[in-house]
Q: What sequence folds into this?
């Protein structure tokens, strides 16, 4: 091999190793959640009796197992053979993505792998709503409709269906929280333009609602 070839081969090797290191570094920031626990919980009628909005939260973190159960209840895969979910969606488009804003960063829930992909390393909770408790409660779920998954319907239909589909997910979260003794409130008061820009959403990804989850301040 000529001297120049050795140099090129060496550079290619270095670039490959650096690329692999960057990929590993990125992958290490993603979080594999524990498998969701699909048994237990309070009886449905008691959960309906206890469901409510709460706007006072402690700073206590939500443990990974509880977060996994929460996200599965919200919009997890409950029929793996069909890839179908715990909440219905119009024409089964499954267009609602759940972003999780915590002190550790902003993550995107991947229901297929029950994992969280890190989108931002920053604490963006304060941007998830206009009320004071939003910045300090441990979790804010941000519901984002990916209109690109909804086909060629009218804008009015897409808007109506994605709002309805978000409502089912938010109610699942309300019911899970009532069962687990967690506090929650779904919220429309969001500076959507500022948050969408901070997350880096495409124009056809629309923030519908946000929902704060944590432990109730007594
Ligand atoms: C679409 C929607 C948007 C809402 N937006 C907010 C909000 O921005 N801030 C808030 O504190 N509560 C918000 N709420 C919660 C309602 O105020 C609450 O559900 C209502 O007062 C009834 O109380 P309950 O949930 O305890 O029955 C919203 C609820 C819905 C369904």
A:
């Amino acid at each position: 091999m000529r001297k120049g070839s050795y140099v090129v081969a060496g550079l290619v090797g270095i670039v490959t190793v650096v690329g692999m290191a960057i990929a590993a570094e990125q992958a290490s920031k993603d979080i594999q959640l524990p498998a969701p626990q699909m048994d237990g919980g309070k009886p449905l009628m008691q959960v309906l009796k206890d469901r409510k909005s709460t706007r006072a939260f402690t700073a206590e973190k939500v443990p990974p197992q509880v977060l996994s159960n929460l996200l599965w209840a919200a919009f997890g895969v409950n029929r793996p053979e069909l890839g179908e979910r715990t909440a219905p969606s119009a024409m089964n488009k499954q267009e609602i993505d759940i972003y999780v804003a915590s002190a550790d960063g902003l993550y995107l829930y991947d229901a297929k792998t029950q994992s969280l992909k890190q989108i931002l390393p920053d604490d963006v909770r304060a941007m998830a709503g206009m009320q004071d408790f939003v910045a300090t409660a441990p979790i804010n779920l941000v519901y984002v409709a990916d209109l690109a998954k909804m086909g060629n319907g009218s804008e009015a239909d897409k808007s109506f269906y994605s709002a309805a589909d978000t409502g089912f997910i938010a109610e699942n979260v309300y019911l899970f929280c009532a069962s687990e003794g967690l506090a929650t409130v779904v919220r429309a008061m969001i500076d959507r333009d500022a948050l969408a820009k901070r997350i880096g959403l495409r124009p056809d990804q629309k923030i519908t609602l946000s929902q704060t989850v944590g432990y109730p301040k007594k």
Q: What stands out?
A: The chain has a mean pLDDT of 92.
